[in-house]
Amino acid sequence: MTAAPPVPLRVALLGCGTVGSAVLRLIEDQADDLTARIGRPVEVVGIAVRRPAHHPDVPQHLLTTDAAALVARDDVDLVVEVIGGIEPARSLMYAAFASGKSVVSANKALLAEDGPALHAAAAEAGVDLYYEAAVAGAIPLLRPLRESLAGDQLRRVVGIVNGTTNYILSRMAETGAGFAEALAEATELGYAEADPTADVDGFDAAAKAAILASLAFHTPVSSADVYREGISAVSATDVARAAEIGCTVKLLAICERVPNGAGTDTVAVRVHPAMIPTTHPLAAVGGAFNAVFVEAEAAGQLMFYGQGAGGEPTASAVLGDLVAVARNRVAGASGQGPTGYADLAIRPMAETPTRYHVSLDVADRPGVLAAVAQEFARQDVSISTVRQTGRGDAATLVIVTHSAPDAALSATIAALRDMPAVRGVTSVLRVEGLS
Ligand code: HSE
User: Fold this and answer.
1) Can you tell me whether residue 41 is helix, strand or coil?
2) Measured over all CA atoms, what is the biggest interatomic distance in the chain, rounded to whole angstroms?
3) Which atom of ligand 1 approaches the CA of 308 most closely?
4) Class of domain 142-307
5) Pocket of ligand 1 contains residue 313 by CB under 6 Å
6) Selecting from 2.40.33.20, 3.30.70.260, 3.10.310.50, 3.40.50.2300, what CATH number does the domain 350-431 have?
7) Which residues are involved in binding NADPH (predicted)?
8) Would you give the end-to-end CA distance of the chain in angstroms?
9) How high does pLDDT run on average in the chain?
10) From the centroid of its chain, how far is CA 236?
11) 92 CA distance to ligand 1 middle (Å)
12) What is the CATH number of domain 9-137+312-331?
């Protein structure tokens, strides 16, 4: 007598765009391996899409426009959400948890907005919520932060987590092009979306930063807690000035523990363009690649690098999560979600220590440098280096500060713009990682 074949784990797939169709393909192509790795086969029993006619290549009998009914089906064990956006994804996730189904998601916007409440709902239902694909695509990052580094204390997580902006900034550095020209090229080649706002203005990176900071510091951090500046104001001059001091310009997501001086730490999370030394490992991350640099007390420095977008790379991360939650399901268990026990205060950007690189067109006459330096001193900002090029009417002062509260630095810039001897503030960028 032969044993009955194992009952499949039945998956509802919500969304079948670039990522969803790659997930479907990988589940089909790797069916035997998945069965061996999980202990039961995986079967997709329904695919929710908005326009079935747009999906001629998937089995038509699986398609439905009623995502809520698909999630509610008794024969569904696990839900994979790759629709993106806040609604209906959020309602569908809560419905999945309420009916005892684990969820795998790639939804950074939703997790960054509502992560703690979603985790609480999953924990209450005794199911899993995994979302490795939400940050930096294929790069295994959230599980290392959540599990591998669970015994360490993280100090800083600094990442290039948006491929579109990294492509644009890389091209600006390579060709000397301005932002608009590099964006046009990125759009033409498909690196930038027709509406590039989410990438270019830093919203995408800010959501990812919120997720990274929450995991790194065991503290709930939402997108609204993240200071955000995009790259549309980065000029060819900024990029050229960076090169002059051995730096390159990157859009960084920076999550750090900052002591508040009273014996407790705060968490500062920010996304903005910054100059970093070309010797920093993140400086070598070119094109549309992502990388995240982690500094931990015991582990020291770690770097995670790879493809942060695209159907197949993102689907790889989704499948990894699918295997994890499926194994838990087979074991009748659920994994430990992130903890927010530390609950550190969020430090406002104005109080966060940063360093600035400032380039000024000035009149080259006695007393100008002293007057410029006086504006820094007035805000208690210490200057690290000053360099002058040119003379007469074409003199340029390039100043790099030591670290100071960001508000003091921006107040200094405002004062410099009002000085009669300053003809123009031609470049202002924060600097990271410079000794
Ligand atoms: N649009 C993102 C990027 C990928 O350019 O990296 C998805 O988060």
Assistant:
1) coil
2) 100
3) 6
4) alpha beta
5) no
6) 3.30.70.260
7) 108
8) 72
9) 96
10) 24
11) 23
12) 3.40.50.720
